[in-house]
Design goal:
With 202 residues, the protein is α/β, with parallel strands linked by helices. The protein contains 7 helices and 7 strands. It has a 5-stranded mixed β-sheet. A two-stranded antiparallel sheet has the order 1-2. The C terminus is likely disordered.
Length: 202
């Protein structure tokens, strides 16, 4: 059982491996990186084994593309290497977690497992109080919305976690036009929250 102190702890730079008890078993995974109050909270599906081995979020091929997009959006500084990107994100006042904490090589979770993770995520959002929640993948966003999504990316109408607005990033294979527009929205979102305590990457 995760304690309140553990949920509120903001780890410093370095490997973020941790061991959690999941379904009665000790599982090595990645620790949450909570945002500062008012920052952005990015939510993925679950860690990949390559990321857990590295001790940092999103170290696979698609994951590194995610970090490149955050550089383009100005959320983390240009030139940040992928293995230090989650530390740069946290240094900017933002955070990252996963809907499901058990690592798998691919998206193998069934819908019930995703739905089961929503309550824990809601609790984290209520405690951390980010300015907004940004879903990295559409399947995670749909599970949290409780409905199929017609939105390809952008703000999710009528969807909030802990009273916080929710946004969806363009998918990893989205057309470049969608990516450019989505990252511009993300850039503006981070800037609008900058006055509330978060420090967007410079």
């Amino acid at each position: 059982m995760t304690t309140l102190d553990e949920l509120l702890h903001r780890p410093g730079p370095g490997p973020h491996r941790t061991t959690l008890t999941i379904d009665g078993h000790a599982v090595e995974t990645l620790a949450d990186l909570p945002p500062e109050r008012g920052g952005l909270l990015f939510v993925g599906l679950n860690p990949s084994p390559v990321s857990v081995a590295a001790g940092h979020y999103h170290q696979g091929t698609l994951g590194r593309r995610f970090w490149q997009r955050l550089v383009r959006a100005g959320i983390i500084p240009a030139g940040t290497p992928p293995e230090a990107a989650d530390d740069a994100l946290a240094a900017g006042g933002h955070g990252i977690t996963d809907l499901i904490k058990a690592p798998t090589a691919r998206d193998t979770a069934n819908d019930a497992a995703l739905t089961a993770g929503v309550g824990g995520l809601w609790q984290k959002v209520a405690l951390w109080r980010p300015g907004a929640v940004v879903f990295i993948y559409k399947r995670v966003a749909a599970a949290c919305a409780g409905r199929p999504l017609v939105e390809r990316w952008g703000q999710l109408d009528g969807v909030a976690l802990g009273g916080r607005p929710c946004f969806l990033m363009p998918g990893p294979y989205a057309p470049e036009e969608d990516v450019d527009e989505g990252l511009n929205l993300l850039r503006n979102l981070a800037s609008s929250l900058g006055n509330e305590g978060a420090r967007p990457g410079r």
